[in-house]
Specification:
alpha/beta; Helix Hairpins; elongated; 14 strands
Amino acid sequence: MQNHPIKKYKPFPPISMKERNWPNQVIKSAPDWCSVDLRDGNQALAIPMNLQEKLEMFDQLVAIGFKEIEIGFPSASETEFAFARALIDQNKIPEDVTVQVLTQSRDHLIRKSFQALEGCKRAIVHLYNSTSPVQRKITFGKTKEEIKEIAIEGVRLIKNLCKEYSDTQVILQYSPESFSDTEVEYALEVCEAVVNVWNPTFENKMILNLPATVEVSTPNIHADQIEWFCSNIKERNKVRISLHTHNDRGTGTAATELGLLAGADRVEGTLFGNGERTGNLDIVTVALNLFSQGVDPKLEFSNLLEIRALYERCTRMHVHPRHPYAGDLVFTAFSGSHQDAIKKGLDQRKKKPMAEQELWEVPYLSMDPSDIGRDYEAIIRINSQSGKGGVAYILNAEYGLDLPKKLRAEVGAIVNGIADQESRELNSKEIYDIFIKEFSQTQEPLALGSYNINRLVENKHEFIFTGMLLNRGKKVSLEGKGNGPINALVQAFDHACLKDFSLIDYRQHSIGKGSDTDAVAYIEIDCGSKSTFGCGIDSSIELASFKALMSAINRSKCR
């Protein structure tokens, strides 16, 4: 940076307000939404969407539930014009959807826009001209009166053209472009002049769109601008106040939400925030923010990943892995403490009766991923930062292994050590393979050969184990009696003078259902210095238990 670049810039002046109401408000219902993906979003693409891609995107926006969709700038190019005609001529606009076209306040552009809309039952004509001091001075070189007259003349022409194209119900939308950088008193003056010409009614309102074309202030000042405007506009009940925020300062979402608190009725934006410079408002984020607060957004995002896939294909843009709600990693925890808390939350939720599961309460997850078409498989992923809870969760969720609490720490340390050594994330199959190799497939130095286990006829609570053991390749006969199969095997080790351990814990559970059920056994033994775990998996619970014991013994001897 330069030595003193700060002198180039000045703070944006605050709005003079004796009192403001928006800080005490709560958003209780969804605004009217208008997607501008096909216009504002499209113009920001390195390769704009072709006609077929725009048709696909339009159908997707309709399916999501948008009732107002800006379809383009038909006077700007033949592709834009052709798209408008395709929607109308092919009867692709549903009865409850209103299309919107954008036009500068210039005579020939307005006329071309009406030609594009011919035959459309209902449309919003979005007229704009820039009003900010910088635009007045640099772009247009015009006075305030001259800029206002541009807006007035545009509205007069639209009003006259409505008579010529009487089959189309026209709703007027006017934008004082760069409202965010315009003196609020002057923006109000221009808008009221437009309202006076159009003469809206309570039944047929017009839209005043107040765009933060470039973000120039903190979101609270934007909210002040909106509240001041809403409080001072005459006949407020005859207009809808619309927001159109950009994201130059990275606060487009906050500015929109505070603008809604300040009294706005309507929001324009794009899916995932695509737009010029740092982007437009991200409607997905704002809508799902409302959803996470118990407010119905009136938009359908239960298949968010499918929506994202179509968006990425049509726009050739990519949604960031950490993008709110839609990113690949936003419901993923690598941190050990996060994983542990999430696992506990999900486990507790499963234990509750269905009637008590209404309220979503899981640490670190602001919403249930399944509500937007996400699953739990990717919530916990493992790298060197992960903990015991995360590894245990994956083994349980993916493979049905419910590890004893004490075993989780040991498994987690081994898996994390490998992830750290290889400097990468481990997938669930790799984690499972590590666990099986370490805890279930250790067959040296001892290997159990053929055996028999019999229950005594005279005492059904006693079992006799007979079998053969390979000790570093040498055969050893085993025989023992106990109050269960495991105890009988332990006693056989004792009789063969091979028992240098004591059994601490034994647990087992099943995996799967019906004929595909396997048994899993976990055994913990104490060899004097520290305890050791082994695991066995088999269709026979008896053999699973023997495998677990042998693995525990071998693991203790390999240390």
